[in-house]
Specification:
Pathway: Polyol metabolism; glycerol fermentation; glycerone phosphate from glycerol (oxidative route): step 2/2. This is Dihydroxyacetone kinase. It catalyses: D-glyceraldehyde + ATP = D-glyceraldehyde 3-phosphate + ADP + H(+); dihydroxyacetone + ATP = dihydroxyacetone phosphate + ADP + H(+). This protein is of the alpha/beta class. Among the domains are: 160 residues, Hypothetical Protein Tm841, Chain: A,domain 3 (2-Layer Sandwich), CATH 3.30.1180.20; 201 residues, Alpha Horseshoe (Serine Threonine Protein Phosphatase 5, Tetratricopeptide repeat), CATH 1.25.40. It contains 18 helices and twelve strands. Helix 7 links the parallel strand 10 and strand 11. Helix 2 packs across helix 3, helix 15 packs parallel to helix 18 and helix 16 runs antiparallel to helix 18. The longest helix has 29 residues. It starts with 11 loop residues before the first helix and ends with a helix.
C-alpha cells in the first residue's frame, strides 16, 4: 500500500506521540523534543530511534518496560538535543540505561548525548547498550558496522524495564540486559517493501514478483540478503530458523546453540506491519512446530506487532537462547520471570508458555457418532434418480464456478464461487461413501444438509443448511416421494427459511429464484416450467436494486451498469438446471 492518512508528514511523529499519550493513562509528552515518558522512581530505561517502528518505541513506555522513548522523524535518528532531554527526564538519580539498535545515526547521536549527560551528571551512572541481533548479514560483510538491531531489541527492553521496576540497582539491570542482548538472533522476511508517508510510490525499488520473497530484510526498507521464489510456510520457517540456529558456518554462527536437544529459547514472532494477523498466527504455529522438530524447547512465545517497518508486508523471527545452569551469570528462570512480569506499556504483547497441540485440541465425546437419521416413519424414494440428479446439479455448478466468482467479485465479496465447490465436493463425497440413506429420503436430505453445514461458509451456507433441514422436515408423514409430497416439502422449506431472513423477492438474492421455483412447482408440479420461472427470476436480478446480501453494500449505480445477475441466485439456477437435466428425461 502506498497511500497514507496523513495531515502533514513532517508532523506525523509528533501527532502519533500525542495521540498515543491521550489514549493511554500514565504517559506524558514533551512535544518540543518528541519524547514520551512516564513517572518512575527507579533506574531509568531509555530507548528510541526513528519513527515508523510503532509500537516501538513510544508504545513500549510503561511501568515494567521503558521509562522514556525519544522519537526521530520516520526512519531517522533523533538529534542529540532530543536524546539529552530524554536522558534528563529518565534520570531519577539511580542511573540511566540507554538501549538502542545498532544503526550508525542512532549510535552516534545517542552516544554523544550519553557522553554529554555523563559530564553534566558524573555522579549518575549512565550506559549505552547497543543491540545487534540481525543474523542475516555475514560476519565479514558487517565487520566494521556490526550487526543491525531488529525486533529482538524489545526483549532487552523488557528484561531491563522489569528489573528496574523491581528495584534492582543499576549494575544488576545493566548486567541482565547485556546478557540478553548477547543471546538473541533475529531474521526478517518480506513480500515487499514499505511506503513512507509523504513519499510517492511504495519505496520498493526491487519490484519483487508476485511469487517472490526477500529473506534478511532490515526495518528501514533495506533489501534482504536473498530473493527467492515464495515457498510454502513450513519451508520458509525452517530456512529462517537455520539462519539463527546454525553453528557450522563461521560467517553466520552468532549464538551458542548446541542443537543437541537441550537448547531452550524464547520465540518472538513479529509482524513488520503489513501482514494479516491470520497469517501471523499460522506462522507462529509453524515456527513452534519447526523448533519442536529440532529438539529446541520453546519456554515462552509471543506473536504480534512489537517492532514494525510502517506497513511492510512481512515478519521476523527472534530467538532468545536462554543461558544454561553452568553459565553462572543470570539464570534462565530469572530472565523468564522478568519477561513474564506485568507491564502497562500499551505496545507490549504478553508472551506465554506455548501449549502442545494435544492440550488445546478439544476431545469430542460424540465424535464418530452416525449422521442425522430420521427417527419417524421412513419416506421411500428412487435413490438412483436422486443420486444422478444431485450429481448433475453439482457438475452444473462446477462448470459455472468462474462465472459465479466473476459475478460475486462485482456484486459481493468474491467468495461465492469458492464456497460452492467445497459444498459440492462434500455432497459428492457423501454420495460415494455410502453415508446417504438409500431407503429413507428424510435421512438422506438431513445427511446432505449436515455436510453442507460442515463445509460451506458464509450466508449462503447457512441458508442452504436451514432450507435443506426444513425440506427434510417437510416430508414428515409423507410416506413416499410423490410430486405432491415434494411440492408440500418445498413450500414448507421456503416458509421455514423466511423465519430467518427478511429477504423477499425482488431482493437480488438467491431467495428470488427459490421463491419463483417453489411457487411455480406448487401450482402444477411441472418441473420444467418451475426451472424456467427460476431462471427468469435470476435474469431479472440484473436490474434489481439490492436490498439484502453483500450486494446491498455495493454502489448501486455501478452494480446496475455491470448488468450481472446475483451470484447466489445464479448458483440456484444452475442447481435446478442440473436436476432437470436428469429428472426431465425420465
Amino acid at each position: 500500500m502506498d497511500k497514507h492518512i496523513v495531515n502533514d508528514p513532517r508532523l506525523l511523529a509528533l501527532e502519533a506521540a500525542q495521540g498515543l499519550a491521550r489514549t493511554r493513562p500514565g504517559l506524558l509528552v514533551d512535544p518540543k523534543n518528541r519524547i514520551i515518558t512516564r513517572e518512575h522512581d527507579h533506574v531509568g530505561i531509555v530507548s528510541g530511534g526513528g519513527s515508523g517502528h510503532e509500537p516501538s518505541f513510544g508504545g513500549m513506555v510503561g511501568r515494567g518496560l521503558l521509562s522514556t522513548a525519544v522519537a526521530g522523524n520516520i526512519f531517522a535518528s533523533p538529534n542529540v538535543g532530543q536524546i539529552r532531554r530524554g536522558i534528563q527526564l529518565a534520570n531519577k538519580g539511580k542511573g540511566v540505561l540507554i538501549i538502542i539498535m545498532r544503526y550508525t545515526g542512532d549510535v552516534l547521536h545517542f552516544g554523544l548525548a550519553k557522553e554529554q549527560s555523563s559530564v553534566s551528571h558524573p555522579d549518575v551512572p549512565t550506559h549505552l547498550l547497543i543491540v545487534g541481533d540481525d543474523v542475516a548479514v555475514p560476519r565479514s560483510q558487517g565487520s566494521i558496522t556490526g550487526r543491525r538491531g531488529l525486533a529482538g531489541t524489545v526483549l532487552v527492553h523488557k528484561v531491563a524495564g522489569s528489573a528496574a521496576a523491581q528495584g534492582k540497582d543499576f549494575d544488576s539491570v545493566k548486567r541482565i540486559a547485556s546478557l540478553v542482548s548477547e543471546r538473541i538472533g533475529t531474521i526478517g522476511s518480506g513480500l515487499g517493501h514499505c511506503s513512507l508517508p509523504g513519499s510517492t510510490g511504495s519505496g520498493d525499488d526491487h519490484h519483487l514478483k508476485s511469487d517472490e520473497i526477500e529473506i534478511g530484510m532490515g526495518i528501514h526498507n533495506e533489501p534482504g540478503v536473498k530473493t527467492m521464489k515464495l515457498p510454502k510456510t513450513p519451508e520458509l520457517i525452517r530456512l529462517m530458523l537455520d539462519y539463527i540456529t546454525m553453528t557450522t558456518d563461521p560467517e553466520r554462527s552468532f549464538l551458542p546453540f548446541k542443537n543437541d536437544g537441550t537448547d531452550e529459547v524464547v520465540l518472538l514472532v513479529n509482524n513488520l506491519g503489513g501482514l494479516s494477523e491470520m497469517e501471523l498466527s499460522a506462522i507462529a504455529g509453524e515456527a513452534l512446530l519447526a523448533l519442536e522438530e529440532r529438539g529446541i524447547k520453546v519456554v515462552r512465545v509471543g506473536a504480534g506487532r512489537y517492532m514494525t517497518s510502517i506497513n511492510l508486508p512481512g515478519f521476523s523471527l527472534t530467538l532468545l537462547l536462554l543461558p544454561r545452569e553452568d553459565d553462572n551469570k543470570v539464570s534462565a528462570s530469572d530472565i523468564v520471570s522478568l519477561l513474564d512480569a506485568p507491564t502497562d506499556a500499551p505496545g507490549w504483547i504478553s508472551i506465554f508458555e506455548p501449549r502442545s497441540v494435544d492440550a488445546l485440541t478439544i476431545q469430542d465425546e460424540h465424535e464418530g457418532e452416525t449422521l442425522v437419521k430420521n427417527s419417524g416413519s421412513p419416506v421411500s424414494y428412487d435413490y438412483t434418480s436422486f443420486e444422478r440428479a444431485l450429481d448433475a446439479a453439482c457438475r452444473h455448478v462446477i462448470e459455472a464456478e468462474p462465472e459465479i466468482t466473476r459475478f460475486d467479485t462485482i456484486a459481493g465479496d468474491g467468495d461465492c464461487g469458492t464456497c460452492c465447490p467445497r459444498s459440492i465436493t462434500e455432497i459428492l463425497r457423501l454420495l460415494q461413501s455410502g453415508e446417504v440413506d438409500k431407503k429413507d429420503l428424510i435421512s438422506a436430505i438431513a445427511t446432505l444438509a449436515e455436510g453442507i453445514e460442515r463445509v460451506m461458509d458464509g450466508t449462503s451456507g447457512a441458508l442452504y443448511s436451514i432450507w435443506m433441514n426444513a425440506l427434510a422436515g417437510g416430508f414428515t408423514n409423507a410416506g413416499s416421494a410423490s410430486s405432491a409430497a415434494w411440492s408440500k416439502a418445498l413450500s414448507h422449506a421456503l416458509s421455514s427459511l423466511c423465519d430467518y431472513t427478511n429477504a423477499r423477492p425482488p431482493s437480488r438474492t438467491l431467495m428470488d429464484p427459490l421463491f419463483a421455483f417453489t411457487e411455480s412447482f406448487a401450482s402444477d408440479q411441472n418441473l420444467a416450467q418451475a426451472v424456467v420461472a427460476a431462471n427468469r427470476s435470476t435474469e431479472e436480478t440484473k436490474n434489481i436494486q439490492a436490498k439484502a446480501g453483500r450486494a446491498a453494500y455495493v454502489g448501486q449505480d455501478q452494480l446496475k451498469d455491470a448488468k450481472v445477475p446475483d451470484p447466489g441466485a445464479f448458483g440456484v439456477s444452475k442447481i435446478l438446471e442440473g436436476i432437470q437435466s436428469v429428472i426431465g428425461k425420465q
